[in-house]
Each structure stands twice: as structure tokens, then as C-alpha cells.
């Protein structure tokens, strides 16, 4: 064998060995990635179990992942427990304060019927107004905390939307008339899946706001638009409108618009409305510009899920 042939043979062997090593290495990396992928899939489904118990790297990764998962399970459990305790506490406090507030209101009314000097009368008026505000707040808190803790549940059924709208409108006829606001609901035959009692509460919150934030002589209307999957109930007003930067905030608990603090309110109506919508598989949206009125849209699912 000549020198050239010998060099060629050695080079070929080296190249073949190098290709072999690369292929083996790729195969090994693929195997490791596959087993990591399976471990993560199992962890996501909550079915992760250690399968290798030796000195290998895979065994060490599995052990660490198992430790991490059990630690995060404990902290999730603790967090949930804390959350439940806070919710129960809010529910208890709200429930316990209902009776004293009702009594304060009652005694205020009794005092109002007495012959009293003007200063005392002013004080009693202020006392009554604050007690009423507290009453509304506690009432809303009791409702939201009962919904959150599952004490009160939402039971959606497939039924007609119009009777719920008519019922809500009836409750606000007087309030609208006092401000000379035209209150109108368009006829509809649409059906959706919702809890009539809770949906009435949500529509009443939207109507209450629409009338409250619309100056005298304005208009408030309700109409329903049916889509493929949802029915949309629009509560529109010709009121003061809402700044774009406030659109995402107004659905938070206790948030009150900067400009609207002169109006009575506690900032919980829209929060409760959103909770009710989401509790029956729907959602709420707002479209509004300052000075151009607002449209609050409540979306309800058309079919059972
Ligand atoms: P509240 O009315 O008691 O303040 P809500 O949760 O019902 O609480 O509403 C939150 C805020 O959203 C209000 O303070 C107000 O700024 C704004 N808002 C709600 N509805 C309307 C509306 N129809 N027109 C203008 N602003 C509104």
C-alpha cells in the first residue's frame, strides 16, 4: 500500500468515525429532549412520576422536578386557602353589619319624624344619607362575596331575553321620569342561556348607571343583537361618557370615575355585573367617549356549553 493510499484510508476512517459520533450525539440529544418533553407534559397534566432511580443525569432532573412540583403544589394550596379565608371573612363581616345598618336607618327615620332644631335635622339628614350609602355597599359586598364563595350560584337556562329587560325597565321607569329621561326597550324574540334573576340584577346595574350618568332630558335605550354564538344586550345612554383610559378600570371593585364622584355610588355595580356575566359564560364590554354617551354591551351565550 502506497503512502497516499494509507493517508486516504486513515482520513476516511476519521471522517466516518466523526460522522458516527455526530449522529450518535444527535440521537442522544433527541432522546434527552424527548424525555424532557414527556416529563413536562406529565407535569402539566399533574401525572408526573419519577421513572429512573439511579445516579444518571435524568434521574437527578426528575428528582428536582418532583421536588419543585410538590413545593408549588403546597404553595398553591396555601394560597387558595388564604384566598378562601379572606372571602369568608368578607362574607361574615358583610353579613354581620347588615342588621346594625338596618337599625341605624330605622332610628334615623324615627328621628326624622320628631320636631327638632334645624342643625339637628341637617345632621340627621347627613346621617341617613351615609347610612343608605353603607347599606348599598354592604348589600353589594354580600352579593359579590356570596357569588365568589359559591354560597349563591348562577343557574343559567335557555329562555327569552325580553321579559327580563321589560322587568328591569319597569323598576327604573320612575327614576327615569324624575330626570325626564326617555327610557326605551326594543322588542326582541331572541333566546339565550342565562340566569334570569342574576341577569336582571346585571341589567339593573347598567340601567341605574345609564340614568345616573345622563343629564336631565337625555335618553336611555336597550336593544338586543343576536350573533352566531352570543346575544348582545346593548344599554346605551346619551350621558357624560367615559374617558378611554378609564375603560379597563371601571369594572374593578370600588373603582369610581374621576369625574363622576359627585354622583352617589360605591363603585361596585360594574364589578358585580361583570361577575354575573362571566358566571354564566358571557362577558361585558364598554364603548364610550366623553360627551358622546356610553354603550355597555352584555354578551350572553346562545347555547348551553
Ligand atoms: P358607581 O356607579 O357606584 O360609581 P359602578 O361600578 O357602577 O360604580 O361604575 C364605576 C364607574 O364607571 C362610575 O363611577 C362611572 O365613572 C363609570 N360609569 C359607569 N356607567 C357609566 C355610564 N353609563 N356613563 C358614564 N360613566 C359610567
Question: Which properties best describe this structure?
Answer:
305 residues; alpha+beta; five-stranded mixed β-sheet; two-stranded antiparallel sheet; 6 helices; 14% strand; elongated; binds adenosine-5'-diphosphate
SSE order and pairing:
Elements: H1 3-45, H2 57-112, H3 118-149, E1 157-160, H4 162-178, E2 182-185, E3 191-194, H5 196-212, E4 219-226, E5 230-237, H6 269-279, E6 283-288, E7 294-301
Parallel strand pairs: 2-4
Antiparallel strand pairs: 1-3, 4-5, 5-7, 6-7
Bound molecules: adenosine-5'-diphosphate.
Instruction: Indicate the structural class.
Output: alpha+beta
Mass-distribution shape: elongated
Q: How large a portion of the residues is in β-strands, by DSSP E?
A: 5-15%
Give a quick account of the main beta sheet: strands, pairing sense, barrel closure: 5 strands, mixed
User: Helix count?
Assistant: 6
Strands, total number: 7
Distinct compounds present: adenosine-5'-diphosphate
Listing every helix as H and every strand as E from the N terminus to the C terminus, the arrangement reads HHHEHEEHEEHEE
Radius of gyration: 32 Å
Name the average pLDDT. 90
Helical content band: 55-70%
Distance between the ends: 81 Å
Walk across the major sheet and give the strand order: 2-4-5-7-6
Describe what is shown at a glance.
58% of the residues lie in helices and 14% in strands. By secondary structure, it is an alpha+beta fold.
What does this structure look like?
With 305 residues, the chain is of the alpha+beta class. The protein is built from six helices and seven strands, in the order αααβαββαββαββ. The strands form two sheets. Strands 2-4-5-7-6 form a five-stranded mixed β-sheet. The chain has a two-stranded antiparallel sheet with strand order 1-3. Strand 6 (283-288) and strand 7 (294-301) form a beta hairpin. The relative contact order is 0.08. Adenosine-5'-diphosphate (ADP) binds at residues 209-210, 213, 237, 239-240, 242, 250, 255-257, 260, 265-271, 294. Adenosine-5'-diphosphate (ADP) is lined by residues 209-210, 213, 237, 239-240, 242, 250, 255-257, 260, 265-271, 294.
Amino acid at each position: 500500500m502506497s503512502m497516499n493510499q494509507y493517508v486516504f484510508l486513515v482520513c476516511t476512517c476519521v471522517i466516518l468515525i466523526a460522522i458516527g459520533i455526530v449522529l450518535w450525539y444527535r440521537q442522544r440529544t433527541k432522546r434527552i429532549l424527548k424525555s424532557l418533553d414527556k416529563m413536562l407534559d406529565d407535569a402539566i397534566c399533574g401525572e408526573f412520576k419519577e421513572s429512573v432511580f439511579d445516579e444518571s443525569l435524568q434521574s437527578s432532573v426528575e428528582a428536582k422536578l418532583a421536588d419543585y412540583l410538590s413545593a408549588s403544589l403546597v404553595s398553591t394550596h396555601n394560597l387558595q386557602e388564604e384566598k378562601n379565608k379572606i372571602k369568608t371573612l368578607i362574607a361574615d363581616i358583610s353579613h354581620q353589619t347588615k342588621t346594625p345598618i338596618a337599625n341605624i336607618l330605622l332610628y334615623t327615620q324615627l328621628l326624622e319624624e320628631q320636631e327638632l332644631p334645624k342643625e339637628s335635622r341637617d345632621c340627621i339628614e347627613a346621617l341617613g344619607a351615609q347610612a343608605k350609602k353603607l347599606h348599598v355597599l354592604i348589600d353589594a359586598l354580600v352579593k359579590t362575596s356570596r357569588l365568589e364563595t359559591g354560597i349563591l350560584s348562577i343557574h343559567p337556562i335557555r329562555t327569552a331575553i325580553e321579559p327580563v329587560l321589560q322587568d328591569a325597565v319597569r323598576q327604573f321607569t320612575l327614576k327615569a321620569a324624575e330626570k325626564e329621561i326617555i327610557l326605551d326597550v326594543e322588542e326582541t324574540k331572541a333566546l339565550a342561556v342565562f340566569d334570569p334573576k342574576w341577569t336582571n340584577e346585571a341589567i339593573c346595574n347598567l340601567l341605574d348607571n345609564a340614568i345616573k350618568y345622563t343629564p336631565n332630558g337625555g335618553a336611555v335605550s336597550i336593544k338586543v343583537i343576536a350573533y352566531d354564538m352570543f346575544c348582545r344586550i346593548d344599554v346605551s345612554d346619551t350621558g357624560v361618557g367615559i374617558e378611554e383610559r378609564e375603560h379597563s378600570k371601571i369594572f374593578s371593585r370600588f373603582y369610581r370615575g374621576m369625574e363622576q364622584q359627585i354622583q352617589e355610588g360605591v363603585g361596585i355595580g360594574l364589578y358585580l355585573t361583570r361577575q354575573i356575566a362571566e358566571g354564566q359564560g358571557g362577558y361585558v364590554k364598554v364603548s364610550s367617549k366623553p360627551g358622546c354617551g356610553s354603550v355597555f354591551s352584555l354578551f350572553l351565550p346562545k347555547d348551553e356549553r
